Amino acid sequence: MRYSSEASRIRKILPGTALSYVPIQESIGAAAFVSLPFATRVFMENLQRRSGVTLGARELGEIQDALIARRHDIDFPFHPGRVVLQDLTGTPALVDLAGLREAVAAGGGDPRSVNPSLPTQMVVDHSLCVEADGSVPRCRELNLEAERNKNAERFAFHDWASRAFGNFACLPPGRGILHQINLEYLSPVVSESKGLAFPDTLIGTDSHTPMINALGVLGWGVGGIEAESVMLGRPILTRLPELVTVELRGRLPEGAMATDLVLALTAFLRSEGVVGAIVEFRGEGAASLSLPDRATVSNMAPEFGATAALFAIDGETLRFLRATGRNAACLARVEAYARAQGLWSECLGEAVYDRRLVFELPRTGRVVAGPSQPHELLPLSDLGKRVGVKRVRDSHSDLRLGDQDGDSHHDLRFGDRVGDSHSDLQFGDRNGDSHQDLGRQVGDSHRGKTEIRTSAPPGGTWLLPGDGALVIAAITSCTNTSNPRSLVAAGLLAKRARERGLTKRPWIKTSFAPGSLAVESYLSAAGLLAPLEELGFGIVGQGCTTCNGMSGGLSAAIEEEILARDLRAAAILSGNRNFNGRIHPRVSEAWLASPALVVALSLAGTVTLDPCADPLAFDPEGKPVRLAELWPSEADIAAVLAAIDFPSHFLAARAPTLAPREGLADEVPPLYSWDEASTYIRNPPWLDESLTAPSPLRGLRPLAVLGDNVTTDDLSPSGAILPESSAGRWLLSRGVRPEDFNSYGTRRGDHLVAVRATLANNRLRNEMVPGRVGPFSLLEPEGRVMGLYEAGAAQAARNQELVIIAGKNYGAGSSRDWAAKGVRLLGVRVVIAEGFERIHRSNLVGMGILPLEFEAGTTRHDLGLRGAETFDILGRPGVGARLRLSMRRASGESLEVPLRCRLDGPEEERAYAAGGLLPLIRDEILAASRRPDAGAKE
Fold first, then answer.
1. What is d(CA 690, CA 880) in angstroms, rounded to the nearest whole number?
2. Do 224 and 101 fall within a single domain?
3. DSSP string covering 605-632, please?
4. Contact status, residue 687 vs residue 919, Cβ threshold 8 Å
């Protein structure tokens, strides 16, 4: 160890600039330095530059030695340079800070001391709902108007926060998706302050924050509670994750999209077990990928379970920065710093990792993922071959899949008359005319009207072809709408489809929600926006829509038919999430696919076919049209991309700089004026003694017993609120009309609504209530089946504390802290699982809930649970503690099993002991305000 106390003060001039930087090689030596992976080099720089803040020389030296040795058992502080928020998770975080100001003021402290101490940027991108789909004229304007009307209270609160908090800025709706804006211009890649250059680093309240890793920027997703802590100046205490390198070999084959690659990688890396790891992509294959393709891969780090998914800085990074309008000074600074600090790709040849994996790019083919998990990979040709799925290759098929010679003397039919094996709903006649009147538009979701009868009367017909009917097709989410190649391919496919006279199926709700205003500009310039619009993929707005469950309502006709016939309706989207119930409560299966495949499948209207071999549709002359005829060549795509002047489009679309509104904090009241009548924003209860008081953890009753891969969508849905749900009934009681319900996600600023959304997924399976699907539980000791929220509320009224027991990967999915907040409000004090997702486990601790794991070899099945049991937690919770679960059955029989405490560091132990992270922060702020030197300046 050759670190000295002077090392953190070493500065060198960055070549070709007037800037200095902290050279990490100077303190650890070249031999140790060359073995460090990219992420470790960033951690080292952060430690050395910020060492005087939290560490002395000896502690810093010990941590550096541990990082060089790739030890994973040493806690160290990481100081991100900034925080990014999206509005569904950011709004509750800001509400918490406003509530914390109230608590500090009540304790005699200065409420303005609760204030972000580092740049915090929020983009309102998750409250856009597809009320008017992409086939409706002026759909974008209608959706934006509806968004502003429904969210007026939330947006007014955002405005107060923008003026009351320093270091905070908010970009209003309609400007794009946070992650794409982050790529396009928020990140400088290499930051500069007071003449010092250093890596851009960040954390975000969206699990897809790692999309920025494609630029060589270290950042990852955290829960809102942890983000609040960082915003208030506390470092993240972390341990070095497992470091995995993935060598990408070869190049993507002709016809494979970035989506195909990332879905294949997700399945591969899930199978290799990279959960919690930092993954670094290297090799000739990584070098061959464009920056947008890399961003598509990095975006889905949470889907394959990684903390981060990094690509080193190289020439492609500079090309992207130039294409998105960064200036020459930025490009020079990035290249000079990356080369000098060893963050340039060519400087990492001798880096040593914990594991090395190899992935062959040439093996990537066209795929989809589903029906409910992003890692459920399926070759496109197998889409209609799944067990239990009836192919449309029968006598009632509109597609005539068994007829390969294009014989036009077959009726083109979809759907059966009730009680009859024949159909009157003919979408083409014997002369092959597919341009006949298709009945009428299925419904105008903006106006809430429908012109088609929902029930099939005697002699009538159904609207849908049966199980597997596509009712939603959406080009959406940050994953793919940041990728020009993928979008140009979709546009070219749409253009060819229109040239063949094809239209999308009339029962499908279609939409296109790009992540940037630049997308509309460059697609329009290329002549590709119009054909997309003609197929129903008009731009519905700039934001995260269907991927986040903001798909809007289906027409009454379609929804009632799904229910009446008990159909397995389907959705296809170019998103990153397809968990049960996420896309729409009436959609049983959701498939992730490239934007071009979304367009292609909308022509077929079903997922019960082989899209690679079967006709997607028939043209006006009755000739079959197959995918291969529509798919653009690489040369076609490349020609369009080469003709686009990307810098001009990105510069024209660039939103105003997300800079804090300086000097305004003193002009507004430091405390928010809460409106008790609001159903959007309410003073949160997290600091109430009833929630923060310690518990002996005795006599706990189960609220839910759940299986593997329980997601945060199960624990706290973000999509549509149904009138019959607990939250829906409560809103109705407050005079809110169903059309104004908005979504679960947009109402997380009001805990009285959000707690009623807890475990409200209509596809939840609580093993305490076998045979029932949905949000149900068992009220004990009565043994009465009832709604889960109602059961939890009844137990809370009795002061009965609760436990949740689950399988593997508990809390997978989005980084929403309400998945922990909701169960805490229902009285849950402990969650016992076989394993936890990283962010959710942290959120549980932040809410004062104890995460415990079964020891290897033990699962919930070994307990023989029925729901009437009571539980004691024996032993003292602490870092690395071994505890015991003592269970008593209603019969009096008892059982004991070992547990492992998942408080993973001393800071988490302190937060749990305080009743949660917010109570701990409040106590620290008040203690600091009472010190004699509290008002002294440094």
1. 28
2. yes
3. -BSSS-TTTS-SEE-TTS-EE-HHHHPP
4. yes
**What is the distance between the alpha carbons of residues 310 and 312, in angstroms, rounded to a whole number?**
6
CA 98 centroid distance within chain: 25
Contact partners, residue 626, CB within 8 Å, separation at least 6? 613, 614, 615, 616
pLDDT digits (tens, 9 = 90+) for 244-303: 999 999 999 999 999 999 999 999 999 999 999 999 999 999 999 999 999 999 999 999
* DSSP state letter for 887: E
Q: Is residue 876 part of a domain?
A: yes
Q: How many domains does the chain have?
A: 5
Tens digits of residue pLDDT in 465-508: 999 999 999 998 787 887 999 999 999 999 999 999 999 999 99
Q: How many CB atoms lie within 10 A of CB 699?
A: 11
Residue 433 CA, distance from chain mean position: 43
Q: Are residues 20 and 33 in the same domain?
A: yes
Measure the CA–CA gap between 196 and 12, rounded to whole angstroms: 10
Cα distance between residue 693 and residue 710, in whole Å:
28
Residue 389: CATH number of its domain: 3.30.499.10
User: What is the model's pLDDT at position 478?
Assistant: 82
- The whole model's pTM is what? 0.86
Backbone angles phi, psi at 591, to 5 degrees: -120, 130
Res 831 pLDDT > 80: yes
Q: Cis peptide leading into 595, omega within 30 of 0?
A: no
Cα 602 to Cα 471: distance, rounded to the nearest angstrom: 9
Same domain, 68 and 94: no
Q: What are phi and psi of 20, to 5 degrees?
A: -105, 170
Give yes or no: residues 22 and 44 share one domain. yes
Give the CA diameter of the chain: 93
- Rg of the chain over CA atoms, in angstroms? 28
Domain that holds residue 552: 377-417+460-650
HSE of 462, CA atoms in CB hemisphere, 13 A: 25
Identify the burial level of 394 via C-beta atoms within 10 angstroms of its C-beta, where 0-12 means exposed, 13-18 middle and 19 or more buried.
exposed
